[in-house]
């Protein structure tokens, strides 16, 4: 069986640009992509904290250090500079792959500076690892 798992997350990052006259995608600071294990052209889901809008598209790297989050093409109608979003990176995995999964969550402040990174073990609450 395959399961759709969250493998990386950019949590509460701010949109810096929205460019309607572009082919499509979301442009993300390369550093942010690396920290959340998002590869160029990987599909991601972007969710707005303002209005719960969700959009799926592929990620393209912006120059490292640019702090750029730019929604390109049609989602420029749905997301605006200053919006706080969550960007999820997901993967189809089998049970064996899931056993080795350590999802990464990258946290941001209001200036798109990284404030922390967490890696999570997968376990049920209350489970004791032996």
UniProtKB/TrEMBL annotation:
Name what cofactor the protein needs.
pyruvate
Pyruvic acid (Ser) PTM positions: 25
The keyword Lyase is annotated on this UniProt entry: yes
Gene Ontology cellular-component annotations:
cytosol
Q: What are the positions of the active site?
A: 25 (schiff-base intermediate with substrate), 58 (proton donor)
**One Gene Ontology term from the biological process aspect of the record:** pantothenate biosynthetic process
The compartments listed are: Cytoplasm
Which pathway is this protein assigned to?
A: Cofactor biosynthesis; (R)-pantothenate biosynthesis; beta-alanine from L-aspartate: step 1/1
The main location is: cytoplasm
On cofactor binding, the record's note says: Binds 1 pyruvoyl group covalently per subunit.
A GO MF annotation of the entry reads: aspartate 1-decarboxylase activity
Under Pfam families, the record lists: Asp_decarbox
PTM remark: Is synthesized initially as an inactive proenzyme, which is activated by self-cleavage at a specific serine bond to produce a beta-subunit with a hydroxyl group at its C-terminus and an alpha-subunit with a pyruvoyl group at its N-terminus.
- Residues reported in the UniProt entry to bind substrate: 57
Q: Which InterPro entries match?
A: Asp_de-COase-like_dom_sf, Asp_decarbox
Keywords for the protein's UniProt record, in alphabetical order: Autocatalytic cleavage, Cytoplasm, Decarboxylase, Lyase, Pantothenate biosynthesis, Pyruvate, Schiff base, Zymogen
Q: What is the catalytic activity of this protein?
A: L-aspartate + H(+) = beta-alanine + CO2
**What family, per the record?**
Belongs to the PanD family.
Q: Which NCBIfam families match?
A: panD
* Record's function text: Catalyzes the pyruvoyl-dependent decarboxylation of aspartate to produce beta-alanine.
* Subunit (UniProt): Heterooctamer of four alpha and four beta subunits.
Protein name in the entry: Aspartate 1-decarboxylase
This chain's source organism reads Lentibacillus salicampi
């Amino acid at each position: 069986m395959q399961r759709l798992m969250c493998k990386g997350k950019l949590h509460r990052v701010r949109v810096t640009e929205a460019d309607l006259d572009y082919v499509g995608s979301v442009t993300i600071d390369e550093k942010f992509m690396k920290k959340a294990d998002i590869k160029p052209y990987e599909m991601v889901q972007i969710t707005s904290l303002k209005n719960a809008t969700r959009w799926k598209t592929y990620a393209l790297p912006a120059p490292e250090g640019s702090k750029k989050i730019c929604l390109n093409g049609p989602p420029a109608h749905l997301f605006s500079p200053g919006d706080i979003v969550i960007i999820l990176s997901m993967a189809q995995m089998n049970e064996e792959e899931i056993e080795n999964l350590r999802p990464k969550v990258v946290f941001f402040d209001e200036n798109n500076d990284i404030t922390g990174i967490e890696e999570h073990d997968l376990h049920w609450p209350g489970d004791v690892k032996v």
